Amino acid sequence: MTPAPALALAGLLGLAVGSFLNVVIHRVPRGESLVRPGSRCPACDTALRPWHNIPVLSWVVLRGRCAHCGDRIGLRYPLVELATAVLFVAVTAKVGVTATLPAFLYLAAITVALAVIDVDVQRLPNRIVLPSYLVAGGLFAVAAAVDGDWRSGVRALVAMAVLWTFYRALAMVYAGGMGFGDVKLAGLLGIYLGWLGWGSVVVGAFAAFLLGGVVGVALLASGRAGRRSAIPFGPYMLAGAMLALFAATPIVTWYQSLLVPTA
User: Fold this and answer.
1) What is the C-alpha separation between 179 and 100, in angstroms, rounded?
2) E strands within 61-126?
3) Do residues 159 and 190 make contact, with C-beta atoms less than 8 angstroms apart?
4) Rounded to 5 degrees, what angle do the CA atoms 185, 80, 33 make?
5) How far apart are CA 175 and CA 180, in angstroms?
6) Can you give the pLDDT at residue 108?
7) CA-CA 20 to 30 A from 213: which of 9, 230, 239, 260?
8) Contacts 24+ apart (CB under 8 A), 251-258
9) pLDDT band (50, 70, 90) for residue 84
C-alpha cells in the first residue's frame, strides 16, 4: 500500500501541475510561449499576483472573478487543477513509489491537457505529443535500468509500432474520421500500454473505440451532434489508456473466464 504522505505529496504536486496545465491548454493551441508573458487576466491583461495563482484556493477566495476587473474566471480552471490532482493521487496509489511513477505521472498530466485541447480545438498539438515520445522513452529507460526490466521496454517499443501502424491504416481508410494527430497519439500511448503488458494494449485500444462509440451514439440520440459532426477522438484514446492502467488485469481475467468457464 502506498504511504499516505506520498499520496498527499502527489495531490499537492498535481494541483501545481494542473495550474501550469491551464497555461498549456490556453497558450499551446495559439502558438504562444509558455514562459512569457507571465499569467494575466485574459479580459483586462493585468498581470496576476502570486497569491492569485494558488491552485483552486485563489479561485474560491476570489469567487471566480478577476481581482482587478471583476471579469469571470471560468470554472474549468479549478476543475483542471482538481482533475490533475485526483489523477496524480490515483496513479501514485496504483503504481506505487516506484521507478515507473514519474513516467505515469507525466501521462496523467498530458492526458488532462490533450483531452481539453482536443475538445476545444479538435487538434492534438505536436508541441505536446512529439516531445512526449522522448520524455516517455527517457523515463522508461531510467525505470528499466533501475529495475533491470528491459523486456517491458522492448514490449513498449513494439506496442508503439503496432498501435501507430493500426491507427495509420484506419486514417488511410477512414480519412474523414481519423486525423494524423490521433495516429501520433496512438504511438505514444502504445509505449505506456506496452510497458504494462499486451493485455493493457488490447484493453486500452478497444476501450477507446467503445467509449467513443457510446458517447457518439448518445450525442446523436440527444440531437447534440449530427452524422457529419466532427467529434474529437483523442479524449477517448486517453480515457482508454487510463482505464487500461487501472483495470486491465481484472478486465482481461473476466474476459478469459467467459472464454474458459471454470467448473
Assistant:
1) 30
2) none
3) yes
4) 65
5) 9
6) 98
7) 260
8) 251/199, 251/203, 252/199, 252/202, 252/203
9) very high
Give the range among 3-12, 52-61, 79-88, 230-239 with minimum mean pLDDT.
Answer: 52-61
118: Cα within 13 Å, side-chain hemisphere: 26
* Nearest Cα residue to 13 out of 88, 97, 101: 88
All residues at 6 or more sequence positions from 172 whose CB lies less than 8 Å from its CB, including other chains: none
Half-sphere exposure of 214 (CA within 13 A, CB side): 7
* Residue appearing with cell numbers 499576483: 49
Q: For cell 471454470, what's the residue?
A: 262
pTM: 0.93
Question: What whole-number distance in Å separates Cα of residue 34 and Cα of residue 41?
Answer: 15
User: Helix 76-95 to helix 101-121 angle, to the nearest 10 degrees?
Assistant: 150
Q: How far apart are CA 128 and CA 131, in angstroms?
A: 6
Q: CA quadruple 112, 117, 122, 125: dihedral positive or negative?
A: negative
